[in-house]
Amino acid sequence: MIPPGFIQELLSRADIVDVVGRHVQLKKAGINHKGLCPFHGEKSPSFIVSPSRQTYHCFGCGAHGNAVGFLMEHAGLSFPDAVRDRRSSTGWRYRKTTARRPSANAPPRRSSARRR
Ligand SMILES: [Zn+2]
After folding, report:
1. What is the pLDDT of residues 71-108, one digit of tens each?
2. Arithmetic mean of pLDDT, 8-21
3. Using CA atoms, how far apart are residues 16 and 35, in angstroms rounded to an integer?
4. Ligand 1 center to residue 76 CA distance, Å?
5. What is the pTM of this model?
6. Which of 14, 27, 54, 70 shows the greatest Cβ crowding within 10 Å of its Cβ?
7. Do residues 59 and 48 lie in contact, with contact meaning Cβ atoms separated by under 8 Å?
């Protein structure tokens, strides 16, 4: 079980711009950051990330949430997974690579590379 206070603490330490920025290309727009919504296809950015509120909001499809919610929605992580992901990136180690799962998008790699 994850104590609720723990989530709050995680969220308060998590920078949503950093979290979302690992998945979506964000541009600074005033006090907020803007990018193409990852939840619906669009060509002009209506996806807003607010560092002051630590939330994201899409004016196109209405997606809305916080850092943990984003990971759950976007990466399809279960809640404990999302928390674990936050933990590993807010904490002591910062992983450079995106938390994308290799199985999700990568085409099956067929190594026609040299065989002996
Ligand atoms: Zn959207």
Report:
1. 888 878 787 788 787 766 655 444 444 445 555 454 55
2. 83
3. 13
4. 16
5. 0.63
6. 70
7. yes
Q: Rounded to the nearest 10 degrees, what angle do helices 79-90 and 67-75 cross at?
A: 120
Residues around ion ligand 1, judged by CB within 5 A, are 37, 39-40, 58, 60-61, 63
Whose tokens are 């603490």? That residue is 9
One DSSP character per residue, 67-100 reads HHHHHHHHH---HHHHHHHHHHHHSS----S---
Sequence ranges of the domains in the chain: 10-90
Reading the block at residue 21, the tokens are 């920025």
What is the 103 CA–ligand 1 centroid distance (Å)?
24
Q: Which CATH superfamily is domain 10-90 in?
A: Zinc finger, CHC2-typedomain (3.90.580.10)
Contact between 22 and 32 under an 8 Å Cβ cutoff? The reply is no
Task: Cite the beta strand spans of the chain per DSSP E.
Answer: 26-29, 32-35, 47-50, 55-58, 64-65
